[in-house]
């Protein structure tokens, strides 16, 4: 079980097969967070805020039978294309990190396979894999936007 938890921690934090959120969001000029290059339907801000909302929902669902999920899809996506200020951006990144640490703590102290009492068959293993999969998908989109904006790392 220890090996499984260690692997889950790796993929939740970005794994070794792809960039993690911290690297994907590092050093982005604030004025570019709301850009939608090539008529994409979302900005970096919208993707990061969506990751925050979805991860928060999965964390709260995993621990609280009284949790009410946001309405899909409207309440999982921010309406605004850019954060109102740098403080909002920083707060979103911090909440993602804090919620992820709380979820990782949970998977280290609870049975991964036990069905979540108020769920419909879900367990912590499923929620961990879903958080990792969902985040990886949208992190890849962030990297694509950064490439299109010319603000991603280049290799020599």
What does the secondary structure layout of this molecule look like, with pairings?
Layout: H1 2-12, H2 21-25, H3 44-63, H4 86-109, H5 124-149
Structure description:
With 156 residues, the protein is an all-alpha fold. It has one domain: dinb family like domain (Four Helix Bundle (Hemerythrin (Met), subunit A)). Helices cover 55% and strands 0% of the residues. It is built from five helices and no strands. It has helices at residues 2-12, 21-25, 44-63, 86-109, 124-149. Helix 3 (44-63) runs antiparallel to helix 5 (124-149). The radius of gyration is 16 Å and the shape is globular. The mean pLDDT is 95. Residues 24-142 form the DinB-like domain. This is DinB superfamily protein. It comes from Pedobacter nyackensis. InterPro entries: DinB-like, DinB/YfiT-like.
Brief account:
This is DinB superfamily protein. The chain is 55% helix and 0% strand.
Question: Which structural traits does this protein have?
Answer:
single chain, 156 residues, mainly alpha, Four Helix Bundle (Hemerythrin (Met), subunit A), 55% helix
| H/E series | HHHHH
How many DSSP-defined strands?
A: 0
Q: Which percent bin holds the helix content? A: 55-70%
Principal-axis shape? globular
Average pLDDT number: 95
Number of domains: 1
CA radius of gyration is: 16 Å
* CATH class label: Mainly Alpha
Topology-level CATH name: Four Helix Bundle (Hemerythrin (Met), subunit A)
Low-confidence stretches: none
CATH superfamily: dinb family like domain
CATH architecture: Up-down Bundle
The major beta sheet can be summarized as:
none
Put simply, the count of helices is: 5
Q: What class would the helix/strand composition place it in?
A: mainly alpha
For the termini, the CA-CA separation is 41 Å
Pfam families: DinB_2
InterPro entries: DinB-like (IPR024775), DinB/YfiT-like (IPR034660)
Protein name: DinB superfamily protein
Domain DinB-like: 24-142
